[in-house]
Structure formats: structure tokens, C-alpha cells
């Protein structure tokens, strides 16, 4: 086997693995496949010190076996997509930052990037540049900065500038725009039915602005877009979309990344080998195979074979490697672009992130005395928590305890009732809640619009004489179903930080000032 060609093939891939150290899977990828780059997930994360040691080991392995410092990346958007968990998960997400007001996106991005740099990362798969203009979008929601091209463009540019300042490469995603779909590309292949002109006037605007500002990297989504390519190929594998549109028409000169090739948006119709060949031919620079060693082996070997046979010219791979080297020399390795921050999770950083979370909390409707009842020494109130089901592959789960425990600790005399919406959907009888026994009801919910029976049960609580406050913990569109609530607030994410802000708001620690960045159907 030609080791030099194998190294070139390996440089095109970003691999994920299990475990919190560089174990057998990682060493196989590095030594046998010459994998050049790495992605970490929540399964790889324990502590800042552990991450720094792991990333140092990944760098050493890659330098030894492939000759270049690797891109080491992570999906650290903040909010509901945060691979840094437990006490590390302090960062508000995109929509929360947007709701908090001017300057909060830049400050949050800079703090987050500084922390990532200190732990040995050099690339972050953020920001999300998708315009969330479809209330039923199952994958974007509060990961988006808003519903208009102007808001999203402004916020992603702030995010990118702040991230680069700390020596981290931001990756703008998911080109050409995933905001107006109703299918999760982790589970199936979404389709965008719009004309190219319509896409250029809305979905693509943030990406065009990012290209004008020379952002270093863009991730391409797995979507069918017949107006751009009628071949039936996902956008991530389409030469018409990557080479002709993104590179030639829009003039993008940076790195093109695929979303993970193990997602069902690709795997439902193509095997890994075919997806790799098509992605490279289309012009992608970095191909993500984020989970299974056998798929990573298939990917590297098929690309190596294609190069040996000449079906994919070596010169095509060299183009991508030249682009990689430009950014690797600047951002990768222990001495390149050090973070300006001297310590992670300093008191100053924590206070700034907490301020953004508090300022994001949005009151859509205020019931006057409702909030004051929470200040009494012994109120009779029920806190009803409708827990959401898991929604998409690879999503972070809250680690380090249940966030609703924050409310339990703040109000130990309240009665708590926790319900899993999927249990109601499976035919379980809804619990009998005697609303007349309570002075107040606090309903805490997340994404109930995906669970019709649970939503109907929640709405039934509003048709009583007992005042009810609804706290919407994820997508703000859900608030439209609760217009009858006495008090209605948006938190944008069901994280420890958001629950803490909600608890502090109820204790009258601050006045909420957040402004919702999307229009909510159903609200007057």
C-alpha cells in the first residue's frame, strides 16, 4: 500500500470514536487509516483537564501518523446542542442570545471559543446560519438566531468574528439553509421545494454574507433541492451545489465540510463508499464519519482505491489539502493563535453567561400577582413538568442531574408531577389533576407540539379557575398553544442555566427583558 497516498486519503476525513481516552478505535484510525481529523461528542467528555489531555494525545497521534496537526472539532453551539455537559454547560444557545439583545452573541461566542481553545480544540461546528421560518422544523428551532435573513446574518457574523479572535475556526452551517424543512436529516432526507431565486433571497442570505466576510468553513446539509440539482443527490454530495454554486457562483474559498455521512439523510439511499466518492467528486474537503470504525475504514479505503485507479485524480485531493494547510498552519498545534483568556470558567465568564441567560427570558403575557405568589412562605402550588422525548441522533442530553431539580430545590413545599409525553401517546390515561386544590399551577413544557395527546392534556389545565403559568423551555412556537395562560414565558432551552434563570425570575431576582426573535402563530 502506498503510504503517502493513504495519508492524503486520511486527511480528507473527520472521525469520531467512543471513550474519553485515545483507545484502540482511535489508534486504529490513526495508525492504519491515517485519519487526519477528529470530532468529539458528549461520550468523549468528562472534564476540562481530561479534554485537554485527550486532544493533546489526538494531536500527537495524528502528527506521528499523518504529518500534520489535526482539526479537532466539536458541536458546541450552546443551549440545546452542547457537548460540554454538567458544570461546563453554561452557554446560552443562538435564539437565547438573540433574544437577550445586542452584544450577547459576540460575548457568549468569545467566552465559549476561549474555553474550547484552552481545552485543545481548534474548530467549532457553529454557528447555525439556518433561518427558522418554519414553526414545525424538527431540527433547528432555538438553534437558529431568528426568522429573518437580516437577524441571522448579523448574529452569525458576530459569532464568527468573536470565535476567530480566540483562535477557533467557526463552521457556518447548514448550507444552503435547513430552516424551512419539516424532516430531521438525522432520520431521513428533507426536501426544499423553493426556486433558486427564492433560496437566494432568503435561505442563502446569511451564507452569502458570511462568504463576503471570508469565513473559513461552511458545512453543507443533507437535503434534496431540485431547483439546484434535480439528480436526486443530497446537497452534501452534489457537484452542482458544492462546486458550481458554493465555489464558483458564490466565490467561497474556504473549507467545505459535509454533515456526518452516517446520518440517514445519506444512508437511506447510499452506502458509505458511494457517499464518499460522490462527496469528494462534488468538491467537499472534509468528510465526517462520526461513529463507527467499520464505516471509517470503508471510507478511507474506497477513497484510496479511487486515487490508485485514477477515477478520482490525486490533484483533486491535493486541492483540498492545500486549503486545509492554510488553516492548519494558522490555527492548529499547541503554539498557534493562543487563547487570550488565562482561565476557563472564571467568575467573570460565569457572570457574563448567567447575565445573557437571564436577559433572554421573555415574558409574553404577565398575570400580575401570579409571580408574587411564588414569594410566599407556604403557597399551595403545583409544578407540572412535561418532559420531552429525545428527538434527534447525536443530540446532547443534560448531564449532571435533572434541570427541573433546580425548581424543586427552590420550592421544596410545592407538589411536583413529572410526566413523559410519550407515555400519554402510548395510550396511558392522563393523570387526574385536581386544579381546585392549588393556588397556582406552573406548567413546564418542551416541544409538546410533537405530542398531540400530551399537548391536549396540558391545554386542559388552562380551562380552570386556578391561575396557570406556562414556561416554554424550547421552541417558542409552542407558546401559541397556551394563549389562555395567565402568565406565559419563553426560556428557549431546557438547560440548567435556563431553569436557573426561570427560578430566579419567579423569586423576583430580576425583571425579564428578552424579546422573542420569531413570530409565534396563535398569539394575539
UniProtKB/TrEMBL annotation:
Residues 31-324 form the Glycoside hydrolase family 3 N-terminal domain. GO terms for biological process: carbohydrate metabolic process; peptidoglycan turnover. The lineage of its organism: Bacteria, Pseudomonadati, Spirochaetota, Spirochaetia, Spirochaetales. Keywords: Glycosidase, Hydrolase. It holds the Pfam family Glyco_hydro_3. This is Glycoside hydrolase family 3 protein. InterPro entries: GH (IPR017853), Glyco_hydro_3_C_sf (IPR036881), Glyco_hydro_3_N (IPR001764), Glyco_hydro_3_N_sf (IPR036962), NagZ_Beta-hexosaminidase (IPR050226). Transmembrane segments: none annotated. It comes from Oceanispirochaeta crateris. SUPFAM superfamilies: (Trans)glycosidases (SSF51445). One of its GO terms (molecular function) is hydrolase activity, hydrolyzing O-glycosyl compounds. Belongs to the glycosyl hydrolase 3 family.
Amino acid at each position: 500500500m502506498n503510504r503517502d497516498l493513504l495519508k492524503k486519503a486520511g486527511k480528507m476525513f473527520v472521525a469520531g470514536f467512543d471513550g474519553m481516552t485515545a483507545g484502540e478505535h482511535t489508534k486504529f484510525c490513526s495508525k492504519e487509516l491515517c485519519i487526519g481529523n477528529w470530532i468529539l461528542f458528549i461520550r468523549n467528555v468528562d472534564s476540562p483537564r481530561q479534554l485537554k489531555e485527550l486532544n493533546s494525545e489526538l494531536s500527537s497521534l495524528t502528527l506521528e501518523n499523518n504529518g500534520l496537526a489535526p482539526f479537532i472539532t466539536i458541536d458546541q453551539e450552546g443551549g440545546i446542542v452542547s457537548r460540554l455537559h454538567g458544570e461546563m454547560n453554561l452557554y446560552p444557545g443562538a435564539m437565547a442570545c438573540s433574544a437577550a439583545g445586542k452584544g450577547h452573541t459576540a460575548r457568549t461566542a468569545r467566552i465559549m471559543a476561549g474555553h474550547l481553545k484552552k481545552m485543545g480544540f481548534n474548530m467549532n461546528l457553529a454557528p447555525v446560519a439556518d433561518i427558522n421560518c418554519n414553526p414545525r422544523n424538527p431540527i433547528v428551532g432555538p438553534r437558529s438566531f431568528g426568522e429573518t435573513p437580516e437577524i441571522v446574518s448579523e448574529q452569525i457574523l458576530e459569532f464568527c468574528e468573536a470565535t476567530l479572535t480566540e483562535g477557533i475556526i467557526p463552521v457556518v452551517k447548514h448550507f444552503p439553509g435547513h430552516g424551512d424543512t419539516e424532516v430531521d436529516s438525522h432520520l431521513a432526507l428533507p426536501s426544499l421545494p423553493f426556486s433558486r431565486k427564492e433560496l437566494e433571497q432568503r435561505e442563502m442570505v446569511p451564507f452569502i454574507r458570511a462568504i463576503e466576510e471570508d469565513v473559513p468553513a461552511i458545512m453543507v446539509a443533507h437535503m434534496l433541492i431540485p431547483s439546484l440539482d434535480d439528480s436526486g443527490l443530497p446537497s452534501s454530495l452534489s457537484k452542482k451545489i458544492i462546486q458550481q454554486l458554493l465555489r464558483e457562483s458564490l466565490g467561497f474559498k474556504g473549507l467545505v465540510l459535509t454533515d456526518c455521512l452516517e446520518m440517514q439523510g445519506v444512508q437511506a439511499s447510499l452506502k458509505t463508499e458511494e457517499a464518499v466518492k460522490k462527496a469528494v467528486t462534488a468538491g467537499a474537503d472534509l468528510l465526517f464519519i462520526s461513529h463507527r470504525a467499520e464505516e471509517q475504514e470503508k471510507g478511507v479505503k474506497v477513497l484510496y482505491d479511487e486515487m490508485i485507479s485514477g477515477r478520482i485524480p490525486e490533484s483533486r485531493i491535493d486541492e483540498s489539502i492545500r486549503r486545509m494547510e492554510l488553516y492548519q498552519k494558522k490555527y492548529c498545534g499547541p503554539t498557534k493563535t493562543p487563547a487570550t483568556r488565562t482561565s476557563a470558567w472564571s467568575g467573570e465568564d460565569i457572570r457574563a453567561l448567567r447575565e445573557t441567560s437571564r436577559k433572554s427570558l421573555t415574558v409574553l403575557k404577565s398575570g400580575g400577582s401570579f409571580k408574587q405568589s411564588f414569594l410566599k412562605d407556604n403557597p399551595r402550588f403545583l409544578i407540572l413538568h412535561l418532559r420531552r422525548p429525545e428527538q434527534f441522533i447525536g443530540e446532547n442530553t443534560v448531564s449532571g442531574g435533572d434541570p427541573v431539580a433546580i425548581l424543586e430545590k427552590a420550592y421544596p413545599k410545592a407538589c411536583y408531577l413529572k410526566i413523559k409525553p410519550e407515555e400519554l401517546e402510548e395510550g396511558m390515561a392522563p393523570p387526574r389533576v385536581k386544579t381546585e386544590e392549588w393556588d397556582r399551577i406552573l406548567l413546564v413544557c418542551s416541544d409538546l407540539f410533537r405530542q398531540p395527546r400530551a399537548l391536549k392534556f396540558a391545554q386542559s389545565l388552562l380551562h380552570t379557575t386556578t391561575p396557570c403559568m406556562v414556561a416554554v423551555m424550547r421552541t417558542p412556537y409552542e407558546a401559541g398553544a397556551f394563549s389562555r395562560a395567565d402568565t406565559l414565558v419563553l426560556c428557549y432551552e431546557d438547560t440548567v442555566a435556563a431553569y436557573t434563570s426561570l427560578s430566579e425570575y419567579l423569586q423576583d431576582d430580576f425583571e425579564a427583558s428578552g424579546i422573542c426573535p420569531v413570530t409565534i402563530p396563535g398569539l394575539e
